[in-house]
Structure formats: C-alpha cells, structure tokens
Write a structure and sequence with these properties.
It is a single chain. Helices cover about 10% and strands about 40% of the residues. The termini are far apart. It is built from two helices and ten strands. The protein has a single domain (about 25-50, about 60-175), classed as Roll (Pnp Oxidase, Chain A), CATH 2.30.110. Strands 1, 2, 5, 6, 7, 8, 9 and 10 form an eight-stranded antiparallel beta sheet that branches. A two-stranded antiparallel ribbon has the order 3-4. It has helices spanning about 85-95, 170-175; strands at about 20-25, 40-50, 55-60, 60-65, 70-80, 100-105, 110-115, 125-140, 150-155, 160-165. The relative contact order is 0.17.
C-alpha cells in the first residue's frame, strides 16, 4: 500500500461566548413585514440537533441508517413586563400555532457583508443563523422566591435551516443597552417601574 499523508488542520482562537448567541421569535400569525422579537433577559438557550437512526442486526453485520430529524430549541428567560415573547409562546401553545425561531451568532468575528439586491453597490451586515418552524412542547413559568422565569421548548418541524440574519451596528447597540442616556430632569422614578419616564 502506498504511503499517504494528507496532513491535518486545526483552528486556534478565542471561543464563542454564550452571551453572543441570541434567539429571536416571531408568531406565524404576524403579518408580512413584522419585526422579530428578542426575548428579554435570556439566561439559557440550547439547540439540539437530533434524530433517530435505523439500527438493525443482520447475518452479515450491523446496518445503521439515518431515519428522522428531531431538532429542538430550548430557551429560559426572566419575565419582564411587555415582553411579547411570552405571549407568542403562550398563544401558540393554546391555539395550536407554530412559532418561527432563529438562533443567531451575534459575534463580529462571524459577521459577513451581503450585497443589497436593490443597490449592488451597497452592502449590509449579517450574522450566521439557523431557522425553523417550532411547535411549543411546553411553557413553564416558575414563580419561586426569586425572579419569575419562563422555560420553553420548541420542537422543530423538518430540521433547522442555515442562513443569515441582518443586524446593523445601531440595532446591536440598541439591543445590548439596558437603557439610554438621559439628561437631568427628563424623567423620575426607578428604571423598570410600571410608568417609566414619568
């Protein structure tokens, strides 16, 4: 047998931080042109790429073949007044609707430039994403002594699809900031009260 050495490859660098992976939701009942919703105060998110295999023994050895895709996305957030994500999940579960979900890697190292289809001279920033239509498996609201949390699982129809998700630097800054700069006297009361800005 001839000697073969095709070499090896390795990747070095700083790993991706979990806080740079954001999940966005949208109701399937939302009109065309509606915005995606970033669930408030995401604490955990996990994506499972799973599925069953056909595994049989024969007289001539084992047969293993792919059978089904069973992808799912599980999210945990803290409940914030006005967060539409909880209503989207609850409505979908109660009314038998699906939910659109995106897992987006919001790290500048992964950003790509996409050409504007309307003006090929312009480019826009986009980030790697996977997308799917999910069926709500469950929504658990934990009303313990601490913060109220929501925990839900979306079982993906077919399988998660790869693509990109556009986000401008301005959108990133707005989504990452908890509140904006104020000048003295613009508002009163604590941040996060029922009547902000009064």
């Amino acid at each position: 047998m001839a000697y073969v050495d095709n070499g090896v490859t390795a990747t070095k660098g700083n790993p991706l931080l979990g806080k740079k992976v954001w999940y966005f939701l949208q109701s399937t009942q939302a009109p065309v042109g509606a915005k995606a919703v970033l669930p408030s105060l995401q604490t955990d998110g996990s994506t499972s790429i799973e599925g069953d295999s056909i595994d049989e023994q024969t007289k001539f050895g084992r047969i293993v073949m792919p059978s089904t895709n069973e992808d799912s996305i599980k999210l945990k957030t803290y409940v914030v007044p006005g967060d539409a994500a909880i209503d989207i999940i609850k409505d979908a579960k109660h009314n038998g609707n699906q939910v659109k979900v995106w897992r987006v890697t919001v790290d500048k190292r992964f950003a790509i430039k996409e050409t504007d289809s309307a003006d090929p001279a312009k480019t826009h920033q986009a980030f790697p994403a996977i997308f799917g239509y999910g069926v709500v498996d469950s929504l658990d609201l934990d009303d313990g002594d601490d913060l109220v949390s929501a925990d839900y699982t979306l079982n993906i129809l077919d399988k998660l699809k790869e693509g990109t998700f556009p986000l401008t630097d301005e959108q990133l800054a707005a989504l990452e900031e908890l509140y904006e700069f104020e000048r003295p006297g613009e508002s009163s009361g604590n941040f996060g009260t029922d009547e902000p800005g009064k």
